[in-house]
């Protein structure tokens, strides 16, 4: 009987369940979007119960599509939007509030207060992260500050914290009837609460943020030796299947892109953009505003670390042109529109809608379009929007080279935007390195499948996984060095115009 691996990929805008075979090929996919809730400027929320409902729906749909017997599923891996924060009651299964999404900036005053007492890099030595609204720790503190009953409830054991992986694994393994409360090292490394050396929650930081330790999940490897737990018969799978892979989405993409050697890097082009470079078992502290994070941990092996640069707005800029301006009616049209012009016409679009992430970490920045003249039309706007993603990626790459001293030889790419060939060519041009797209671009889900499969010996090890990664297309730079420098100089000038708005 043919065995397959199921990957649940819970992203910022939708939830998917993808089934992979032994060759890493996709057997079936089901996807469902969920609501984006914006209660006020800078706030972004999701409904955790809606996300769980969507997850159950896509699981049932994909099993139906693939026409599989449940016993054919060898294991289940979960990958998720990171940092998004949920507090819930383990006895009722009810969240205390909507999930606060990674993009949300409501914790700015908490971060500013913490920074005023010790600088923005106050905890960086321990956690690899600057103080920023992005991470889960300040979000948990905000919820405790805002909901008066939470502290009393927490002391009675009635509060659990989790990022989305923790929430889904808890639900899948029984929820109120004994669901497991766990996370993995990659997700824990994004809370600002986990010590990178010990791979455990840091008591000093918990004390400073006044977060009770008992609400936090147990931290385990991304691919454990034994399954974390099993699904319950009453759940969407309808049978007992091992849950044995858990990796934050960007680290999952690094695994799915088989970047297992030091210096190998990938960039995921989704709602935001995330570039990760493998730094091996060494914790490289960034001097250039990048994040130091756990890449993955397999079984009893030491953790592998990575440098990460995050761009807050990438695909979200295309959605904004579609939904807010009505410039296009579907995201795919952006490339066609951008191709109606030869170049950007001299305009640069800095999409700092909720501040700038790496390498700046400036929550006071806001979006700007500079260089406008009467000559500019919507084609130029579309082109500048795509180029913004490539320019932001270049800034991160420059910082990575300075931090790690490792010269990048090529960039592996994945995510929704890599189907945009104009963007991929411009990315190769502006970076001056080959840009490589694999055949399977669903590398996030594939990474979660790899993590789960390793646990149950579906795949024998990292070398076995490498065999299932294949190139689809490579773009090489065609731009002169002079033109590359000129464009990048203008981009950096535009970024300066976006600062100090708030």
What is the element layout, followed by pairings?
Layout: E1 4-10, E2 14-20, E3 26-33, E4 45-46, H1 48-66, E5 73-80, E6 86-88, E7 99-100, H2 108-116, H3 124-127, H4 136-146, H5 150-155, E8 160-162, H6 164-172, E9 182-184, H7 185-188, E10 194-195, E11 200-201, H8 203-209, E12 218-220, E13 229-230, E14 242-248, H9 249-256, E15 265-269, E16 273-280, E17 291-296, E18 304-311, H10 315-323, H11 333-338, E19 348-350, E20 368-370, H12 378-404, E21 411-414, H13 421-431, E22 435-438, H14 443-455, H15 462-466, E23 471-475, H16 481-498
Parallel strand pairs: 1-5, 5-14, 9-12, 15-21, 21-22
Antiparallel strand pairs: 1-2, 2-3, 4-7, 6-8, 10-11, 13-14, 15-16, 16-18, 17-18, 19-20, 22-23
Short note summarizing the structure:
Helix content is 33%, strand content 21%.
Structural commentary:
- The chain has 502 residues and is α+β, with helices and mostly antiparallel strands.
- It is built from 16 helices and 23 strands.
- The protein has a seven-stranded mixed sheet. Strands 3-2-1-5-14-13 form a six-stranded mixed sheet, sandwiched between helices.
- Strand 17 (291-296) and strand 18 form a beta hairpin.
- The radius of gyration is 22 Å and the shape is globular.
- The mean pLDDT is 94.
Please estimate the helix content.
25-40%
Instruction: Determine the structural class based on helices, strands and strand pairing.
Output: alpha+beta
Question: What is the general shape?
Answer: globular
Q: How many H/I helices?
A: 16
Largest sheet: 7 strands, mixed
Distance between the termini: 60 Å
Strand content: 15-25%
Oligomer: single chain
Side-by-side strand order of the widest sheet: 17-18-16-15-21-22-23
Give the low-pLDDT segments. none
Radius of gyration: 22 Å
User: Count of DSSP E strands?
Assistant: 23
């Amino acid at each position: 009987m043919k065995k397959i691996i199921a990957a649940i990929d819970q992203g910022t805008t939708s939830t998917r369940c993808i089934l992979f075979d032994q060759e890493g090929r996709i057997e079936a996919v089901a996807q469902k979007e969920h609501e984006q809730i914006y209660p006020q400027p800078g706030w972004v929320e999701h409904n955790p119960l809606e996300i769980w409902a969507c997850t159950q729906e896509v699981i049932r749909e994909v099993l139906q599509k693939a026409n599989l017997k449940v016993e054919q599923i060898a294991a289940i891996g979960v990958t998720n939007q990171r940092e998004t924060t949920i507090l819930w009651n383990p006895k009722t299964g009810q969240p205390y509030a909507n999930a606060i999404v990674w993009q949300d900036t409501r914790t700015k005053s908490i971060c500013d207060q913490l920074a005023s007492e010790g600088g923005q890099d106050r905890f960086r030595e321990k956690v690899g992260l600057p103080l920023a609204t992005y991470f889960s720790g300040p979000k948990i503190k905000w919820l405790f500050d805002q909901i008066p009953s939470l502290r009393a409830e927490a002391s009675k054991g009635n509060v659990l914290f989790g990022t989305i992986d923790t929430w889904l694994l808890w639900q899948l393994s029984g929820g109120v009837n004994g669901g497991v409360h766990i996370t993995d090292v990659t997700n824990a490394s994004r809370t600002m609460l986990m010590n990178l050396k010990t791979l455990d929650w840091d008591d000093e930081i918990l004390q400073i943020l006044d977060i009770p330790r008992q609400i936090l999940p147990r931290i385990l490897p991304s691919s454990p030796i034994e399954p974390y737990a099993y699904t319950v018969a009453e759940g969407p799978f309808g049978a007992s299947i091992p849950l044995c892979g858990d990796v934050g989405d960007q680290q999952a993409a690094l695994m799915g892109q088989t970047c297992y050697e030091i210096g190998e890097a990938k960039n995921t082009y989704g709602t935001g953009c995330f570039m990760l470079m493998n730094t091996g078992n060494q914790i490289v502290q960034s001097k250039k505003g990048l994040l130091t994070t756990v890449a993955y941990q397999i079984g009893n092996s030491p953790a592998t670390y990575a440098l990460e640069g995050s761009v807050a707005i990438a695909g979200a800029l295309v959605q904004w042109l579609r939904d807010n301006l009505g410039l296009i009616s579907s995201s795919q049209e952006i490339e066609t529109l951008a191709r109606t012009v030869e170049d950007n016409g001299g305009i640069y679009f800095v999409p700092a809608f909720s501040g700038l992430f790496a390498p700046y970490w400036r929550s006071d920045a806001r979006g700007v379009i500079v260089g406008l003249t009467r000559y500019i039309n919507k084609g130029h706007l579309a082109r500048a929007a795509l180029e913004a993603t490539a320019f932001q990626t270049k800034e991160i790459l420059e910082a990575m080279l300075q931090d790690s001293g490792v010269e990048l030889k090529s960039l592996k790419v994945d995510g929704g935007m890599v189907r945009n060939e104009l963007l991929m060519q411009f990315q190769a041009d502006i970076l001056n390195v080959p840009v490589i797209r694999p055949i399977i671009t669903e590398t996030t889900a594939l990474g979660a499948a790899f993590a789960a499969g390793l646990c149950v010996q579906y795949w024998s090890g990292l070398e076995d996984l490498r065999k299932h990664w294949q190139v689809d297309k490579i773009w090489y730079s065609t731009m002169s060095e002079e033109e590359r420098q000129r464009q990048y100089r203008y981009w950096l000038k535009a970024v300066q115009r976006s600062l100090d708005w708030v």
